[in-house]
Amino acid sequence: MFRSMATACRQQPIWHKACCAARLIPVSDSTFFSDRTGQPVPRVSEQVAAKAWRGLVALIEGLIGDGSLARDFPMRDCPDGASYVTGTDEEMFIDSLKAHVPRAGDIPLAVSQLPSTAIVLDILDFVALHIDRPSGRRHHGYFGHDHLFFNYDQEWITPSDAKFRSDVDLIFARNGIAFSFGDDMRIGRLGPPEGRRLISDFRPNTGDPELDAKLIDAMSRFQSRTPSDHQDALEKLWDSFERLKTLESGANKKASVAKLLDRSAPTAPLRAELESEFTALTRIGNNFTIRHHEHDRQELSDEYSRDYLFIRLAGLIAFVLRQTGRMAS
Q: Rounded CA gap, 10 and 13, in Å?
């Protein structure tokens, strides 16, 4: 009875009525008290720390132990027949992991040896590619093991994938790590907190397929976990900005920009600010190593500078597209 009541309460994400009280208490649906009371760890780190790595290793070892990796790495040691899967062949799994992530070393899941963040994320991608919890079990009492069965006709994203994604994301969230599994079950970068909603809601529908493709590519590269892709994202976004300026019909780019500003700004003072922002961002693109790479251009040497400029321009583009009816809902 108590468990069912607690479960019902947890299923309410914003408010729930206390089981033994008359007042309403604001809560989140997080597992942990600090998150529920508005004290979460900010997810801004792009490095996996040792304590998070140890938790991830424990998670993967649990998947090996419960047969969640046995479909692709089956152990068949039942004396009654080699067709029965009885668990995960850990040696087979490790050998395959080392072949696909060779930089992980000879002991890729050693808790005492913290790999680089790139290697940790590669390991998680590899596990996500092979995870599949058994759809059925039958206990073989005589030999004291289970026979595992799998549904080979299931869809791409399975409940076991979702559970793994949730478990990893919880470890990342509790340790302030700014990476997460996407819907494609691949690890990606969340990016700075101030830009996450902007990027997740960014669905261009400009009527110009080439511009849409450029914008989507820029967003995808910005979320890449490879730092060099973030510079590419910045350059592609500025290329998109220049093409955006020609969306409206006009004799030249200047006339097109004027129409775009007229349609985007509900008031004259805001139009003036938008025009100023267009001018400022055009100057930034020309003066820094974004659109041009001559020696006299200013280098963007740190990640924070690139993130700031990307989010600033992305915010402007998103506003203009929404105001002119060029953003898909």
A: 7
